[in-house]
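Technical note accompanying the year-one report. For the benefit of new consortium partners, we illustrate the data format agreed upon in the data management plan: each record pairs a sequence with a structure-token string. No post-processing was applied to the example shown here.
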Amino acid sequence: MSRLRIRHETGFRYEGEAASSYNEARMLPQSSDGQLVLASALDIAPVSGVHDYLDYWGTRVSSFEVLTPHRELVLTATSLVEVRPRAHPEHRLEWTALADAADRSSELVEQLGQTARTSPPDEVRELAAGILRDAATPCEAALAIARAIGERIEYVPGSTTVTTTAAEAWAHRKGVCQDIAHLALGALRSAGIPARYVSGYLHPVPDAEIGQAVAGESHAWVEWYCGSWRGFDPTNLIDIGERHVTVGRGRDYADVPPLRGVYAGPTSSQLFVRVEITREA
């Protein structure tokens, strides 16, 4: 078990004065299998009233509006989370049983369809199909597909943007965790395996000392269904464990951006992000 303190500061700086803004933040985790939220808070400046709710995918959302003129919007999310090792039970689910389960569950059906961000190029579809031919079960195939994608994409910060598609990232064989997750989702779904996008945080230092604060960032990985939901981090080629904190799930990044909004005022704004993670136990 590890205990992680996460401080995530983000927001917008406007080129002039914004008259008002309307926003949604998905920055605070909630307790679930493998993690227990001991404390969490979201500070917003300028001060604003906040409405919290769970969205369609089960992600915690803070919706707020700022109706006073402002040149900068700053959100600071702080969380203290206990993270335990996740179990990854082996399921001998057959392909016909997986198809039957998907037919009976709207949750699974919705995670089978491709989106504009995850739609894979033919080469990725062929890669997934080749792995299927050698795999005995959907679980075995899914893990091999996610690994194959992670092994073929070079992690290069700044090489893509939040609007980059899986096909574009594959063409350059470069991307960030978001792109690698989108490619893995596209490959898994093309193979008939329900899969979903997961956003959260990853402590970047496996052997960090207690009390040591390190620079972090938002992270993304995938989960697929093969009898139960099973997570994997294709960017780092590791199972989801004590360094991962889940914030939200969806079909792709568009369902779980940390901050999204609209404003009235200047024609442009600049997003800023700072994440600090401290291991406390």
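Partners are asked to follow this layout when depositing records. Residues 138-152 form the longest helix (15 residues).
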